[in-house]
Amino acid sequence: MSIDFLGNFPTKPGDLRIWANVQGSGTAWALSQASEHHQGLILVVTDNTQTALQLEQEIPFYTNHNLPILTFPDWETLPYDSFSPHQDIVSQRLATLHRLPSLQRGVLIVPISTLMHRIAPHSFLAGQTLMLDVGQKFDFNNIRKQLEQAGYRCVDTVFDHGEFAIRGAIMDLFPMGSNVPYRIELFDDEIDTLRSFDPETQRSIEKVEQIRLLPAKEFPINDSAISRFKARFKQQFDVDPRKCPLYQDISDGIASAGVEYYLPLFFEQTACLLDYLPDNTLLVSTEQLQESIEHFWNDCNNRYEDLRYDIQRPILPPSELFIPADELNRNLKALPRVTLRGGIAEDKDHHTDLPLLKV
């Protein structure tokens, strides 16, 4: 089954089209068809994380091309939670952010609550990415310092993203954004071999010529970033920082649990995921998007009111951490947009009734 989408795409910023009669797996089918015709990136904004995960699994079923299907997953924490997202989630987010600026076509799936988070600017990833090549000079002390400042943890045995271990002339390392960890073997002061290995058995798998190291956190933890955090913390909060455990941890170079909800304090300016996207991005969402935006924004404000009075853990106002609903709406309306509707269109202007998909 196919349909001619060529006349049904919005052609310029601010244009809106309605694709109606989209039901069940028809959403994934419509997106797969759209990705074949749109000469650019398709940003799919879902109402919740469950729908995002479902589309990530369903879209490949309907595609017969090799265009990338990326996700920018949610932290899976509530606003202002005092614990951090799992390292695997952070790894996937960083890998997506690293890839987006050079991505010309494909599909990016993101829940609306995730899109509303302020994130690190592109300059952070560009400045923190490190490449290691066979034959490259390798200084253990220097590399270890760089890894620790990038948020990596030194452990006895590497199992998870963001960990490294040193044994004699060998370093094991699980880079963020990588599917497998790597073993770096030295000859004198040069990298002799780079091999991937199985973290469960610790056995080597295959040789590679180069590995890419992304930071282990979505914020810097080096000396300048710590100084910036401390200065901005004191400006933002009228409390005694000596009585704030999180402030003391960051001062000691420790990424305290839940520090992600203080991310703006590490940067002069934050970014939005939309800032990472190419100019020819097409937005696809459902009719419930506005309701989901307002619901999340209200949740953020309610949690802020509940938690704002803890002087040992003061918190940032919602507008500092999240994109306000009105600001996000303005940014989204500036994109070419497609809204998916479950029922048949009543007003046929700018509407297309898709064929009912039977599976």
In short:
With 359 residues, the protein is of the alpha/beta class. The chain is built from eleven helices and 15 strands. The strands form three sheets. Strands 3-4-2-13-14-1-15 form a seven-stranded parallel β-sheet. A six-stranded mixed β-sheet has the order 6-7-8-9-10-11, with no helix packed on it. A two-stranded antiparallel ribbon has the order 5-12.
Per-chain topology:
Elements: E1 16-20, H1 26-37, E2 41-46, H2 49-62, E3 69-71, H3 87-99, E4 106-111, H4 112-115, H5 122-128, E5 130-133, H6 140-149, E6 153-154, E7 163-167, E8 170-173, E9 182-187, E10 190-197, E11 204-208, E12 210-213, H7 223-236, H8 245-251, E13 282-286, H9 289-307, H10 318-321, H11 325-333, E14 337-340, E15 351-353
Parallel strand pairs: 1-14, 1-15, 2-4, 2-13, 3-4, 6-7, 13-14
Antiparallel strand pairs: 5-12, 7-8, 8-9, 9-10, 10-11
Structural key phrases:
359 residues, alpha/beta, six-stranded mixed beta sheet, 15 strands
Walk me through the structure:
A hairpin with a 2-residue loop joins strand 9 and strand 10. This protein has 11 helices and 15 strands. Helix 1 packs across helix 2. 31% of the residues lie in helices and 19% in strands. The protein is globular and about 65 Å long. The strands form 3 sheets. It has a 7-stranded parallel sheet with strand order 3-4-2-13-14-1-15. The protein has a 6-stranded mixed sheet with strand order 6-7-8-9-10-11, with no helix packed on it. A two-stranded antiparallel ribbon has the order 5-12. With 359 residues, it is of the alpha/beta class.
